[in-house]
Write a structure and sequence with these properties.
This protein has four helices and six strands, in the order βαβαββαβαβ. It has a six-stranded parallel β-sheet with strand order 4-3-2-5-1-6. The N and C termini lie far apart (41 Å).
Length: 136
């Protein structure tokens, strides 16, 4: 069975963004890898909530091209890129079924309600946390 892995960068105070929402404090992956490429190669699927999806879109081109991408939302009228599938089903049931499919591991991207639901259902199999300090 595939594993669902939470891979996330967080500040030592448990935040992923500055108070103003900026994530400029995160390390530049081109300067040091932190094991990221090996992790990225081990997955073929990403899942996230719609708020995280919007943040990812704001960073430029869809970074997860070539990976199956599932975005959870309660709103079936939300627009997503052609490479992405909007999921309005129950996240717990959807992820249970997704984990049973053949394939590589699955990356749970971002934080929020989806993480809590999947954690409480016992579906997160591991976590990789990159922690750093930032000055606000």
């Amino acid at each position: 069975m595939r594993k669902l892995i939470l891979y996330i960068a967080t500040s030592l105070d448990g935040k992923i963004a500055r108070r103003d929402g900026a994530i400029d404090w995160l390390p530049d992956p081109s300067s040091e890898d932190y094991g990221y490429q090996e992790f990225y190669d081990s997955i073929d699927t990403v899942i996230m909530g719609y708020n995280t999806y919007e943040v990812c879109l704001g960073l430029g081109d869809w970074y997860y091209r070539g990976k199956a991408s599932y975005i959870f939302s309660r709103h079936p009228d939300r627009e997503v890129l052609p490479d992405v599938q909007l999921v309005t089903d129950d996240p717990v049931a959807f992820v249970r079924e997704l984990k049973a499919r053949e394939g590589k591991d699955i990356w749970l991207v971002g934080v929020g309600e989806i993480n809590t639901l999947l954690h409480d259902a016992g579906l997160i199999d591991g976590a990789v946390l990159l922690t750093r300090t930032h000055d606000d």
